[in-house]
Amino acid sequence: MGGTFDPIHYGHLVAAEEARHDFQLDLVLFVPSGQPPHKTDRAITAAKHRYLMTVLATLTNPHFAVSRVDIDRPGPSYTIDTIELLRQQYGPDEEYFFISGADAILELLTWKEPERLLGLCEFIAATRPGFPLTALSETVGQLGEQYGARVHVLTVPALAISSTDVRQRVASGRPIRYLVPETVLYYIEKNGLYRPRVPSPAEEAPPLEGRGDEFTADEAPADEVPAPAPSAARGDAP
Ligand code: DND
């Protein structure tokens, strides 16, 4: 399963587990993208964080593993290159299935070298709640007729979870517990991911010149020394 995983959530994990069960897969490899080829509209969280969250989320499933193949190489993480590298690593005789959301299937022909890609692996398209199945069946039929593509539709229990929603929830202080594994929740909290960036006091302050409160190096203002721990600050307050 390839993805940006910014962050990984239970929607990804349920789809992967359903695919593993229904297609009797030996292993589901989660492949976080280094540079997602199609996501140029927003800043992506550092690959290190997305990779570690994926490791934490998949730790307890013996059939799940995480590959660094896309984050260790430069340039956009095109799936055709990912599959080629995995075939070198695991052998060309294995059967490869690319698990993705059903929405990705509708755009598959815009991916790099789609015809060759469709010849190298089968696709498992996990439906998301509210996804129009008629359009999907038509596309799956066309891909099969024109390119000999093998695309399987997998209905997963309705999980209206998305990474975008998880990020927005963190940014606005809403809970994400039960949308992501606890380990991922703690990782997000500990590393301050997805919180709105708080401007530093220096950025907020108006220019010093002409403000009448210029200071010399010996008289640095209190906000330039590290702030005391919150409890100490409260205790010291007049
Ligand atoms: P996303 O950024 O959409 O992943 O990336 C999906 C994969 O497509 C990555 O491996 C990309 O490298 C590859 N791609 C995209 C475009 C062009 C090319 C390749 C190319 O080669 O030219 P997300 O982290 O958002 O999600 C991962 C997967 O999980 C997606 O397929 C998404 O649709 C699916 N998903 C859900 N499935 C079921 N229930 C939910 C889901 N939420 C996300 N709630």
What can you see in these coordinates?
With 238 residues, this protein is of the alpha/beta class. It has one domain: 3-Layer(aba) Sandwich (Rossmann fold), CATH 3.40.50. It is built from ten helices and six strands; from the N terminus they run βαβαβαβααβαβαααα. The strands form two sheets. It has a three-stranded parallel beta sheet with strand order 1-2-3. It has a three-stranded parallel beta sheet with strand order 4-5-6, with helices on both faces. β5 (122-127), α6 and β6 (151-155) form a beta-alpha-beta unit. The radius of gyration is 23 Å and the shape is globular. Residues 210-238 have low confidence and may be disordered.
The ordered string of helix (H) and strand (E) elements is EHEHEHEHHEHEHHHH
Q: Regions with pLDDT < 50 over 5+ consecutive residues?
A: 210-238
The backbone outline, from C-alpha atoms, is: globular
CATH architecture: 3-Layer(aba) Sandwich
CATH topology: Rossmann fold
Mean of residue pLDDT values: 86
What CATH first level would be assigned? Answer: Alpha Beta
Class from helix and strand fractions? alpha/beta
The share of residues in helices is 25-40%
The strand order across the widest sheet is 1-2-3
Rg value: 23 Å
Distance between the termini: 57 Å
Please work out how many helical segments DSSP would assign.
Answer: 10
**Largest sheet properties:** 3 strands, parallel
Strand content: 5-15%
